[in-house]
Amino acid sequence: MISVNDIKDFANRAWNRGDVLRGAALSDPEFPLRLRFKKAGGQHVIDSFAEIQRWVSELNASSKDKRGFGYAVEFSQVNHRKLGRQNLPSDIRFDSPYDLARFIGKQNDLDEYLTVLRYSEEQNPSVAAWMKSNPMKVLPHMQDWEKVLRVCDYLLANPRPGIYLRQLALPGIDTKFFEGKRAILSEALTQCLPREAYEDCVTGLSRAGFERRYGFLYDEPFVRFRILDDSILPDSDYRDVSVPATDFARTPIPGVQTVFITENKVNGLAFPMVKGSIVVFGLGYGIGELAEAEWLKDKRVVYWGDIDTHGYGILSMLRGKLPHVESILMNCRDLDQNKNLAVQESSDTRRTDSLTNLTDAELAAYQRLFPGGDCEGTRIEQERVPYMQLISALRLDDRKR
Hints:
DUF3322 domain-containing protein
């Protein structure tokens, strides 16, 4: 038998799915919303007649008939040989979103949502149309919705503004507002801005994704590299250089034939001199921005990462953008040779997903780090690998070429 608490659980699930707010906004035909009972067998009715009567009384006591809101109880008549005609509950019915919302104490949220929706329909119909289908995304931000719409108005009037967010002079809207609202702002802006007013290919918020998508300036990351051949940039006194990522991506470095990439700062600083080469270091997953450099597609690119799950993850991500990337010191032989130098990779952050851009040799080493593998949780940091192994790998690599 379904209890009043079961009905509340049913109503809360409908609320959390957004059915109630969508129903109020769209006059959704899902209402009336029904919770159907299983039909009781004749013998069960006889055996539990007193219990059923108490149950019916409890359902009625909390129903719309008694309280003026909430659910209605539908009955169906059952002809029973011993008990005669009996009216037993067959359905619980919520006639409207308002009945359900009030029943679970959400009436104020419903009223506020509809007020915000009506205001949005007047100010920005495109955003309002999206709100009707996505009410649960809006709900946590209703107190700030007027500000969200003002940002939309600003970017409609000033697409791709080319300023820093801190320079945006809108009353009551500061940097903290953007820090907490980037995701919902991006949803709203995508609905109302013309396609040419934003970069559709920028989909995430990491690495200043909001700023890049909507044309704001941002404090972009730097790419640090060392020149490993004195014939590269011979007129410059600088051999250890840091430049904005966009500058690195836009401007090929004359004389460079090979770009080595290493995660670790110390390894980048200690990397040996190699003809026609530079080494880029210290980027981690920020390597994704490095891969935007078109000129790297015509260069040899060699990656040396930690032998841990994230090292292989970064390699796979990089190769997804630059398919010709090679790796060094990241196969099973290197794993076995340096197991005595290993530390434990945290199980909380360890990757176990499928990486589709690894070679067979790299994949074999990666899978040995999985749960159940013979090197489960192993982490061999680059800086712990003996320097002579790097020298040998570079010599071997040079001979292969």
